[in-house]
Write a structure and sequence with these properties.
295 residues; three-stranded antiparallel beta sheet; elongated
Length: 295
């Protein structure tokens, strides 16, 4: 939509995305706005206000949060949480009653994003640990735990849902998990912490993105079938991430080929009880391109 230059206004947000002021491009007038913790304000002017949500002035200041309407005077949503009790015991609560530190632009609790991030991070944290020379079952388990925690944190940052959002969450969580797994194995095996195979990380990013997108699609189908959207998304992300678990090995092999096998592959490993010591690990079963397995 083309807006005449003289009628344009620049919105100035705060750290939560709430529009604190608008600057008129024609007159240079600065119109300010203020909010109470749950979004109450003395004015309903403008289209976007509290945490960047679209305000509906005809409904006396209700906010459109995509999945449901939000009433800032009550500090509550007007419809129950579409993910049910998976988002907490109070189906109408806004941001778990913590509006100063959290936002909810979709009207849905961040548990779904956190779940997708946890699955992707744990998957690829384990694979990243297992694919690093000197890996043990301990490093794989720690890699999965750390990767899952990092991924859950990434997913909880943005509770808005959708194929693109959860694909980004899955991709970032997968890549972060893969790097965390490699670093943990290097630390436990006494390798240089800088021995990171970024080809494996690139594969984890793509695999995590596929898992996140697949989880969104299957989660939506589950919701239409009357099944918990959270459970459906978690199951979908797990299933969709399956084929993607091959991508870190493929990316790692390509990276080793291009770098002559030097990236993320220390020349020696002395850690006993390793899962793999070949340059192209093939998975958690311990098989590698050299045929070595866990001792």
């Amino acid at each position: 939509m083309n807006v005449p230059a003289g009628t344009r206004a620049t919105m100035i947000p705060d750290i939560q995305g709430s529009v604190l002021a608008t600057l008129d491009s024609g007159s240079g007038t600065l119109a300010k706005a203020g909010y109470r913790p749950y979004g109450e304000s003395g004015s309903t002017a403008g289209s976007f206000r509290y945490t960047g949500l679209r305000i509906d002035p005809e409904s006396n200041g209700l906010y459109y949060a995509r999945a449901r309407m939000y009433n800032p005077a009550w500090g509550r949503f007007l419809q129950p949480d579409p993910i049910g009790y998976a988002g907490g015991a109070n189906l109408y609560a806004y941001t778990g009653n913590d509006p100063l530190n959290r936002t909810d632009p979709s009207g849905k609790d961040p548990f779904i994003g956190a779940t997708v991030g946890f699955i992707a991070g744990a998957y690829y944290g384990a694979l990243g640990a297992a694919s690093t020379p000197g890996a043990t079952w301990k490093s794989v388990l720690v890699g999965a735990g750390v990767g899952g925690a990092v991924g859950a944190g990434v997913g909880a940052l943005d509770p808005s849902l959708g194929v693109y959002t959860l694909a980004v969450v899955g991709g970032v969580a997968g890549g972060a998990g893969d790097i965390a797994g490699q670093v943990i194995t290097n630390a436990l095996a006494g390798n240089s912490l800088g021995n990171i195979n970024y080809g494996s990380t690139a594969g984890a990013v793509i695999g995590g993105a596929l898992g996140g997108a697949g989880g969104t699609v299957l989660g939506g189908l589950a919701a239409k079938a009357g099944i918990s959207e959270l459970a459906g998304t978690a199951m979908g992300a797990s299933i969709s991430s399956g084929p993607g678990t091959l991508l870190p090995a493929v990316g790692g092999a390509i990276s080793d080929y291009l770098t002559g096998g030097t990236e993320g592959n220390p020349s020696t490993t002395t850690n006993p009880g390793v899962i793999s010591q070949g340059s192209v690990p093939l998975g958690l079963g311990g098989a590698t391109a050299t045929g070595q397995s866990m001792k």
